[in-house]
Amino acid sequence: MINVNQSELFHYLKESIQNQLEWGETSTWSTVDFEKLSGKIQERTGVILSISTLKRVFGRADYQSAPSLTTLNTLSQFIGYEDWRAFRNTYTQKRSTQMDVPKEAVFENFKTARKKYGHLFFKIIFPVLGLVLMGFLTQKFVLSKHSSPTNAFHFSSKTILTEGLPNSVVFDYDASETNMQDTIFIAQSWDTRRKVAVDRNGKHHSSIYYYPGYFRAKLMVGNKVVREHDIQIKTDGWLGLIEADWGKEPLYFRKADIIKPNEIAVGKELLERYKVDLLADAPPVRLYNQKDITGVMTNNFSFETELKTETANGANSCQRVEVLLQSKNDIIIVPLVNPACIGDIALIADGFYTDSKQDDLSGFGCDLSKWTKLKIDCKNQQIRFWINDKQAYMAMIKNAPTEIVGVQYRFKGPGFVRNTRLWGSGNKDIVF
Fold this sequence. Notes:
Layout: H1 6-21, H2 31-45, H3 51-57, H4 69-78, H5 84-98, H6 103-117, H7 119-145, E1 154-159, E2 167-174, E3 184-187, E4 195-198, E5 204-209, E6 213-221, E7 224-233, E8 239-242, E9 251-252, H8 255-258, E10 264-266, H9 268-273, E11 284-290, E12 300-309, E13 321-327, E14 330-336, E15 346-349, E16 352-355, E17 372-379, E18 382-387, E19 390-396, E20 404-412, E21 415-424, E22 429-431
Antiparallel strand pairs: 1-2, 2-5, 3-4, 3-6, 6-7, 8-9, 8-11, 10-21, 11-20, 12-17, 12-21, 13-14, 13-20, 14-15, 15-16, 17-18, 18-19, 21-22
Helix pairs in contact: 1-4, 2-4, 4-5
């Protein structure tokens, strides 16, 4: 069995994860991608690897030391191995079987053949080997010559509804100039679970979007993105729903059920009316408002809202809530919890990330059974978070400015929102 160094193994592990996810090169991944990867790893292995750890693993942040054995075991389990040792052994065995015959043996075989066959070796065998090599090189040249440039592709789309959910999008594409052996995919967003193979000679493909948001759809040849464009799926004002498993239609509430005179509300009574089970687990209640907003940039804005929740059962003792500000290809995620649960939260803000494993986020602890005021204020990329008029945290956002396009609330169980507004540097006031 051959010896494989740790660096080679680690590189192959990362390459295996990248190939399995099919999200493209890790150098193009956003913070949201790393957040999603962290969630997928936790779902599959039961272990939480923070976004900062994953960024260091994939070379997007400085890594002063080798990853821990726990990290290596978790990443190996994520791609189907028992642990890091099993991954290492499998890879080493694979390398052993793929290795060519040692050079010494090749040389000895060459000398033996020359002695045995004499001039026939040079008259017959050697030319045949030359023809095989020439054919191999010619094939590589032809394939590379006929690989299609990105300007040979067309990719566009139209949204069936101007707003409201669910919504369908019809994609128009042209990938006919690709090689016969190429597989063509359309991905609705960053998540390749929404990637589907399409006919290489086809022209149209339709998909359903069950959730609002700002998405970057991609036309892919194999794992390579050749065309992409943005799609915004907007709501008709406020939208309330119960999140479903991936690919399944969520439970949508009627607008009349959730819009009250002074608040947006999904209470116990409404959940019981829709026969949502409150006993097994707190249901994932989501509130969205995604609409046309222009000119409010992530580097200079203010946002205010008030919210509260109820404990539907013992499963929501931490009163976890997340408030999201969605922008074009970026996001802010603010955690709010019962003060006793601040030891397991994370804050994301347009390229900035921190979590309670490495930082003091106690300012985001509050009594969410009462109306709680959240304010976010950003000036010249310095962002501040205020809970009930007390500063909870301050940071510098890292990503380039982009327009804010909507807001989302994630509750476990009943949730209530009121007095939500957003304004930019030009004092443009948007009331949700």
